[in-house]
Amino acid sequence: MDGAWSAAAVRRAESQLMAQLPPGTLMQRAAAGLATECARILMQQRRKRGTAGVYGSTVIVLAGPGDNGGDALFAAARLARRGARVFAVPVMGDRVHPVAAAALTRAGGRLVATPPRHCDLLLDGVLGIGGRPGLPGRAIDQLAAIDADTIVAVDVPSGVDVDTGAVPGSAVTADVTVAFGSRKPCHVLGRAALLVGRLVLVDIGLAPYLDPHPAVRVADDGDLAAWWHEPGPDDDKYTRGVVGVAAGSERYPGAAVLATSGALAGPSGYVRYAGTAAEHVRRRHPEVVCTQEVKEAGRVQAWLAGPGFGTDEAALAELRHVLESPAPVVLDADALTLIGEYPSVLSQREAPVVLTPHDREYERLYGSPPAEDRGAAAAVLAKRLNCTVLLKGHHTVVASSDGEVWANPTGRPQLATAGSGDVLAGFMASLLASGMGGAKAAVAASYLHGLAGGIAGAGHRTVTASDVARALPLAVGATLTAAETPSKRS
Ligand SMILES: NC(=O)C1=CN([C@@H]2O[C@H](COP(=O)(O)OP(=O)(O)OC[C@H]3O[C@@H](n4cnc5c(N)ncnc54)[C@H](OP(=O)(O)O)[C@@H]3O)[C@@H](O)[C@H]2O)[C@@H](O)CC1
Ligand SMILES: Nc1ncnc2c1ncn2[C@@H]1O[C@H](COP(=O)(O)OP(=O)(O)O)[C@@H](O)[C@H]1O
Ligand SMILES: [K+]
């Protein structure tokens, strides 16, 4: 498991590490890593144009008043020593890191008020983990005036809320963000995560000092492999888990077909379908055992209820039957609307429940749209309803009722296609049926669903929900193989 640590947690770790090191060491480690990445970018970019590497390139630094500006200036000094023409613009009056500014000047760089209009690389050293959201006016003006081939954010894109990923004002949109020591929540959550570009982590020796519990958890292939239930020689279709799908209707048979496609792609051994779209499911998936009603379906180890099954009396009755079962349950789509209207149907529930709202469904459940701090938004709903909440979006967030927050690293916009949520929900129910806990199933399902979207959409292909379902087994295979041989995944 990887993670993202808050600014305060990074500072606590930093002060312990700094106590062991000569002054300035950490900043030099950060600047060295940053300069290396900038040089790599410059060489790649200029090689394409047939020009030389770092030598002769133009680099502009937007330098804020703190250590973030210091990192940028020290890195720029290293580039200046390799022959880059460096112009540094102080963006908060003339407040800049004095030692770093002197180092840049000694290396041949210049502090200027008006830099060239074009540069090969712009370094955003305006604000780091000490920044409040928003940008100083001077930085906004410079960003508008300069045409940069590549924008590299130092530690975080300046202007974002580092601890929540909210972007309430103006902020830098980076092509690359070079982060020091650890990810921060803004790298993985909310609108800020869309401003990060490619994330490069520079090791400055902080890891041993970081709190073992990050503010936001981020799953990796190894987690997925550890949680995955591979069938053993003594398994049969029942011990692998039976998943029940209560979805679809005569009006929306597609939801039933897609949800069962998702369930069939998971690790459980048996998929039962209960609902009025049984004929459609049977025709498309002969593997699925179909009944018309939940109470005829027999025993299952996990249920999915909701996609396309309506919000009328009959749907409410079916939802109640599902919730009477002692098995874990995924509630999606229409089931969320019903829960919003009749929250008491959840009150007797003891077995795990995973809710999978998008923003409008969240509003129906919570009474107001999710806050820009999407981790906190998912966590408050999870606590209030004593459920796991998977809040959908570009960076899907999962929160457990005890306050654990996960950000999904694999999402991609091609997944925003009708029915892809049905596939996700069916797949997740299969993970629950195989014995995975509620939060893990939600984290694993969004991780693999994101990868499946990438596999289905490779080469700019358009993607349908059926494509995502077909790609899910490939995503599972790629993940489990990569966990066995970590170097295989680029
Ligand atoms: N921790 C680590 O492990 C390491 C950290 N390192 C580096 O240090 C960075 C953190 O540096 P930092 O603490 O000096 O804070 P930083 O973000 O530069 O800015 C603070 C200044 O900005 C000002 N200010 C704030 N918001 C503002 C706004 N919206 N608009 C305008 N001004 C605003 C604020 O003003 P004040 O609050 O005083 O009014 C203060 O003067 C970190 O991101 C990383 O790059 C590495 O070198 C080594 C390892
Ligand atoms: N902009 C986006 N980028 C990445 N993923 C997205 C984006 N928008 C939606 N998604 C994902 O697409 C899926 C859509 O689910 P949902 O809204 O329930 O669709 P449907 O109800 O049509 O099945 C979710 O997994 C969600 O996280
Ligand atoms: K920055």
Automatic annotation (TrEMBL):
Catalytic reaction equation(s): (6R)-NADPHX = (6S)-NADPHX; (6R)-NADHX = (6S)-NADHX; (6S)-NADPHX + ADP = AMP + phosphate + NADPH + H(+); (6S)-NADHX + ADP = AMP + phosphate + NADH + H(+)
Ranges where the YjeF C-terminal domain occurs: 220-479
Residue stretches making up the YjeF N-terminal domain: 10-212
Domain of life (superkingdom): Bacteria
Swiss-Prot/TrEMBL cofactor(s): K(+); Mg(2+)
Assigned EC number: 4.2.1.136, 5.1.99.6
Cofactor note: Binds 1 potassium ion per subunit.
Sequence positions that bind K(+): 68, 124, 158
A family per Pfam: YjeF_N
GO molecular function, one term: metal ion binding
Annotated positions binding (6S)-NADPHX: 67-71, 155, 255, 308, 358, 422
Keywords: ATP-binding, Isomerase, Lyase, Metal-binding, Multifunctional enzyme, NAD, NADP, Nucleotide-binding, Potassium
GO biological processes: metabolite repair; nicotinamide nucleotide metabolic process
Positions with a binding annotation for AMP: 392-396, 421
InterPro entries, per the entry: Carbohydrate_kinase_pred_CS (IPR017953), CARKD (IPR000631), Nnr (IPR030677), Ribokinase-like (IPR029056), YjeF_N_dom (IPR004443), YjeF_N_dom_sf (IPR036652)
Biological role: Bifunctional enzyme that catalyzes the epimerization of the S- and R-forms of NAD(P)HX and the dehydration of the S-form of NAD(P)HX at the expense of ADP, which is converted to AMP. This allows the repair of both epimers of NAD(P)HX, a damaged form of NAD(P)H that is a result of enzymatic or heat-dependent hydration. Catalyzes the epimerization of the S- and R-forms of NAD(P)HX, a damaged form of NAD(P)H that is a result of enzymatic or heat-dependent hydration. This is a prerequisite for the S-specific NAD(P)H-hydrate dehydratase to allow the repair of both epimers of NAD(P)HX.
Oligomeric form and interacting partners: Homotetramer.
Family: In the C-terminal section; belongs to the NnrD/CARKD family. Belongs to the NnrD/CARKD family.
UniProt xrefs under NCBIfam families: yjeF_cterm, yjeF_nterm
Name this polypeptide is given: Bifunctional NAD(P)H-hydrate repair enzyme
Organism of provenance: Glycomyces algeriensis
